[in-house]
Amino acid sequence: MLQNIESNRPATQTSGNILIVDDDTDFLWLLTSLFNQHGYQVNSVTSGIEAVNIIEDNNPDLIILDVGMPGMDGWETYQRLRNRSVSPVLILSGSGTGINGAKALRVGANELMQKPFQTKELLARVEALLQYRHAQPQDADPQPSVRPIRVRPTVSVIIPTLNEAKNLPLILPYLPLDYINEVILVDGRSTDGTVETARAIMPSIKVVMQNKPGKGAALTAGYRASSGEIIIVMDADGSNDPREIPRFLNALMQGADFVKGSRFASGGGTSDMPRVRRFGNAVFVYLVNILFNSTFTDLCYGYHAFWAYSLCTLDLTGVDGFEIDTALYLRALNDKLKITEVPSFEGYRFYGVGKLRTIPDGARVLYTIFKEFVGSVLHPNRDLKMGFNGDSIQNKEVYTISKIEESL
Question: What is the DSSP string of 280-297?
């Protein structure tokens, strides 16, 4: 969940003693390592009761508190700590943003951060809160910060479908809705009640009908309909595990522009890949890594996620078929987006017959690889244009920072 742990402490950094309260011992270790390497003193406990018992002796300059703990939860812990300490409190939450954001404001918390989050953002907020603390009289009454509570980026999940009515009950209920703002089902004119099944399971689902056949056309329709600052694409047949979504979000929050699942990265795997497809995929990966100087471990796998600002560089017009995933990855490479692979396990299709045609679709992928390579040579620096909204931007990094700043 955390990266970019730098060893050099900024000259202007405020010193401070931080108390971290979280029942996740792995997360505690990560935060402790991060803050120690940045010169802060850290004490950590795994329960609210422990925090209350040591707060007066510890006298921290800042308290970082997770609200999702068992037993005495974070909200009760916060109230008890506030009765004993005037130190600012940064609340961490992994649940719905609206309720916790409102509650944090109501009880007077200084900051709220939603997991997953960026390391740099966390460090910036910690530094600001420590400066705020040192500017207050030591015996002052606790006052909530006037800085606004910011929440995590909005997330859209796009699921292309064609006659997947039997599979949706095994997919939709397992989506981690705490992290998701909208689910978009893009239907290719199903005749088995796919749309009706989706609406029965998830009444809030947004249904979009694609106007022409092909996976590429489906994804383009989904991109146009999405409103999230992060877009996730997954299949509806059971081959992509929705429980892996936080893994993709973590990689994006750690600084990636584009995250692709890999069955062959350490920790990944597949139970639904015949030898001929495995061989073809390996050949394509080798070819792409040679031509584009990349380090991919997988190519023909459609589970991916990216910041929506990436659409301003990815011109996907004219890519309608299965090769859309390859075109996406290669154009992201060509446009110098930061791409990260995360391990993913490809399961068996639950019901129905797969729509992949090994030889014809393999030929289209091979054609796409060479087409994109020629394009990268002829047009190494394409204009950054918002392909779906019609807006133009000159500096996507500035746009990215403002989007993250507004949404966190």
Answer: HHHHHHHHHHHHH----S
Q: How does pLDDT run across 47-91, given as a tens digit for each residue?
A: 888 888 888 788 899 999 888 788 777 778 888 887 788 888 888
Is the overall model pTM greater than 0.70, yes or no?
no
Q: At what angle do helices 275-292 and 324-334 cross, to 10 degrees?
A: 20
Specify the DSSP element, H or E, that contains 78.
helix 74-82
Average pLDDT, the chain: 78
Rounded Cα distance between 236 and 158, Å, is 10
Query: Cα-atom radius of gyration of the chain, to the nearest Å?
Result: 23
Q: Provide the CATH number for the domain formed by 155-399 in this structure.
A: 3.90.550.10
d(CA 178, CA 97): 8
Instruction: Evaluate whether 19 touches 64 at the Cβ level (below 8 Å).
Output: yes
Beta bridge partners of 258: 306, 339
Distance in angstroms (rounded) separating the CA atoms of residues 151 and 141: 27
Cα 304 off chain centre by: 10
Cβ atoms < 10 Å from Cβ of 68: 15
| All residues at 6 or more sequence positions from 42 whose CB lies less than 8 Å from its CB, including other chains | 17, 18, 19, 20, 31, 32, 35, 36
Amino acid at 323: E
DSSP, residue by residue, 93-121: E-S-HHHHHHHHHHHT-SEEEESS--HHH
Instruction: For helices 358-378 and 275-292, give the axis angle rounded to 10 degrees.
Output: 0
CATH code for residues 17-134:
3.40.50.2300
Sequence ranges of the chain with CATH classification 3.40.50.2300: 17-134
- CA–CA separation, 175 vs 245, rounded Å? 8
Please report, in angstroms and rounded to a whole number, the separation of the first and last CA atoms in the chain. 15
Residues of the chain with CATH 3.90.550.10: 155-399
Tell me what pLDDT residue 399 has: 31
* Rounded Cα gap, residues 282 and 302, in angstroms: 16
Q: Please state, in angstroms and rounded to a whole number, the distance separating the CA atoms of residues 25 and 343.
A: 23
